[in-house]
From TrEMBL:
It is a multi-pass membrane protein. Residues 1-20 are annotated as: Disordered. PROSITE patterns: ABC_TM1. Residues 10-19 have a biased composition (Polar residues). This is Binding protein dependent transport system permease. PANTHER family: ABC TRANSPORTER PERMEASE PROTEIN, INNER MEMBRANE ABC TRANSPORTER PERMEASE PROTEIN YCJO. CDD domains: TM_PBP2. It is found in: Cell membrane. Residues 93-305 form the ABC transmembrane type-1 domain. Its main location: membrane.
């Protein structure tokens, strides 16, 4: 009787691994992508999504980073409305947004020039590619020397044409534009790389058909080349807008927010309020970060929606 009672148990336990193995075999193709995506998704959740949610939560508190947080509701956001420094930073960010977009057409035209078979084209590509591989710290230092009112190249050139010296980084009305020009140098190189990659994917048959129809010059570029560069343009827009809104390193290297706070942007002002000598106001810095994130989200959502509508219309 004991052997008869043990037999069913042994048989049932022996069949369970077979059932699970067969389930894994049947669903192997469906599970494989999720297994490969899992590490990236986990990192994205912990290092992107969770900090964003934490910043939203922290913006409703008064906290110095050490003591107990004190819930104050929307008080940090109300203070932002009357903060003159926040207003200057927001206005400077809008300047960065508008002028930084010049990197996209500049990168396109440089890519069109480099996408030719001419003597020395490899040397030209290397020279235009060079700003992309150097760090923002080096760019900031180079342009600080370039703008220097005593020995800078800019003022030497102005002296040759009979113009007086200009202290770009010391003039509150010019300093933001000077830093933006410095930022455009590597950003244009990045957009150029995107468009060079996109030009390699342009359909030569469409170009040839357009030539047979008499299209050339600006018409060829506008109606044939640029529509095929839409994915590269989308990436260039998103990356350029994000770069303009989170501009921090050039400002820190070239002016440290000066003179008199006139070159601050939201990301730099957030750092000053949360982590600098202005009082370690973590909640107030988080409120500035939330405003910056929402501005960035609006632009990215608009471009994603536009791209979705274009793809939907193409179908």
């Amino acid at each position: 009787m004991a052997e008869m009672n043990l037999a069913p148990e042994t048989g049932s336990s022996a069949t369970s691994p077979g059932v699970s193995d067969s389930w894994l075999r049947r669903n192997r193709q469906a599970l494989a992508p999720w297994l490969f995506l899992a590490p990236g998704v986990i990192f994205f959740l912990f290092y992107v999504i969770f900090p964003i949610l934490q910043s939203f939560n922290l913006s409703f508190y008064r906290w110095d980073g050490l003591g107990d947080p004190q819930f104050i509701g929307m008080e940090n956001y109300r203070e932002l409305m009357d903060d003159r420094a926040f207003e200057v930073s927001l206005w400077n960010n809008l300047k960065w947004l508008l002028l930084y977009l010049l990197a996209i057409p500049a990168g396109l035209f440089i890519a069109l020039f480099l996408n030719q078979t001419v003597t020395g084209i490899r040397l030209y590509k290397s020279l235009f590619f060079f700003p992309f591989v150097i760090s923002q710290v080096v760019v900031g230092l180079v342009f600080s020397w370039f703008y220097d009112p005593t020995f800078g190249l800019l003022n030497q050139v102005l002296a040759w044409v009979g113009l007086g010296p200009i202290n770009v980084l010391g003039d509150p009305t010019l300093v933001t534009y000077g830093i933006i020009i410095a930022g455009l140098w590597p950003q244009t190189a990045y957009c150029m790389i995107l468009y060079l990659t996109g030009l390699n994917a342009v359909d030569p048959e469409q170009v040839e058909a357009a030539r047979l129809d008499g299209a050339k010059g600006a018409k060829m570029l506008w109606y044939v080349i640029i529509p095929q560069l839409r994915p590269a343009t989308f990436v260039a827009f998103v990356v350029t807008i994000i770069g303009a809104l989170r501009s921090f390193d050039l400002i820190s290297i070239m002016t440290n927010g000066g003179p008199f706070g006139s070159s601050r942007v939201l990301s730099f002002y957030m750092f000053e309020k949360a982590l600098s000598e202005y009082g370690f106001r973590m909640g107030y810095g988080a409120a500035i970060a939330v405003v910056l994130f929402l501005i960035m989200l609006c632009f990215i959502a608009y471009f994603l929606w536009s791209m979705y509508q274009d793809d939907k219309g193409a179908r």
